[in-house]
Design goal:
Layout lengths: L2 E2 L2 E2 L10 H13 L5 E2 L14 H11 L8 H13 L5 H32 L5 H32 L3 H7 L22 H12 L18 H8 L3 H4 L5 H14 L3 H21 L1 H12 L4 H20 L6 H11 L10 H12 L7 H6 L3 E3 L5 E3 H24 L10 H16 L1
Antiparallel strand pairs: 1-2, 2-3, 4-5
Length: 432
Amino acid sequence: MQQLGGFQTISGDLIQRSHGTRMILKRKIKSGTARLQSTPRAHMPPRWDELPHQEILLKAQSAMLLRSPARAAEDSLLSLLKRRLPHNDPSDHMRYIEIESARIVETLRQLRDQYRSYFEECGCNPIAEMYWVVIRYEVKDWAIMALRSAAVEYIAASQVDNTKWKELFDFSGPYNEFFLLGKTPAVLPDLHEKLKNTISALLPKTGFDQIIDGGPFGRESQTYLAEKFPGRAFFEGRETFDAVIKRRQESWDDAKPWTECLAALFEVTQQEVFAQFAALGEEAKEAELRFVHLSEFQRIAYTHFVSFARSEVVTGTPAKNFWPKLLLALDDARIVPDATLQGKARETLTAARLKGLKLRTWQECYASTVRITLDDGKVRTLRREVTHAISNETAKAGRQMEKVWGRQTTSAFGSKKASSASSNSMAKKTKE
């Protein structure tokens, strides 16, 4: 069935109905009289704008034990360092940035874990894709907001010279007044609010996408800012572009330590986001250990089925000797058919042995061509029962793996019907 606007339509059933029934249902769908089965809201994926973002943030901060006795020494040191920042002692500035950077990194990791827990409770899967979504659409945005807040607080506490700040980073600095000639603002803006607006402009949501040392606060970024805002002297022909870049970079060096510390704060935050992206593969494998519980039989069968499917996709040709290789792997692992086969497959194996056949391994069962008639009157072959049993176990394993990795690797095993069809096609190819 297909989901459409919170409902499941019956159009998917049309394929398996008679022509007359299909035409009736089509007319009902067009006229709007076809019955639709409502999907409970609990089973729908959560809308992003309906997520309890503030509640998740509070849980993350609570887990960090902010303002707790355990953090008393760190909080008092941060307070003392903040008072000393205006003295421009490089060691004080770097120590302050170290503490602030550590808090940002801790906050981002707690947010990552809290969002994952929330989505797992909601039953969202595949887990691997959910992990990526959390970092891309939550951790990354929170990182930008946390960096903005920390940068504003640091610049304000450092009592940075307003002229030097405007010269380097403000878009209306003394060298960028060419477009402001004859224009005087009616109301002077609040300096703190103006600082927040400037930081927000320097750090948009895509601020981490550009790889520059120190980001917009780094020495290299002065070249980029010179291209965007070369200044009045350049437009009046009193300064070359090379001179603009040299002047900006010299001003950046003279403004240390706060320019260098701002760049370090950006780099630490950006590297944490990149590190979380880089760890997604390993974390998904760890999630597999928590959510997927396969027997040795299922794991071997699933691995061979996936390898077969990938080989067909890559080469465009069927994999050769699929069943013999899979059965050999099961025999090498000392997995006996008696311990795995159930139901009609087990009855077929027992009946074949009563006919005097020695069937101890998977390869012997597959090679058997004897036809068995059970109590239900149906004629069965051991080869067919064995391949069906393996395909069904593979489908069960595939449904577990989908919770973590999605349908990209398990689409061939979504149902018994699909796995049986796959089994039959592979059996035919092997026979030929």
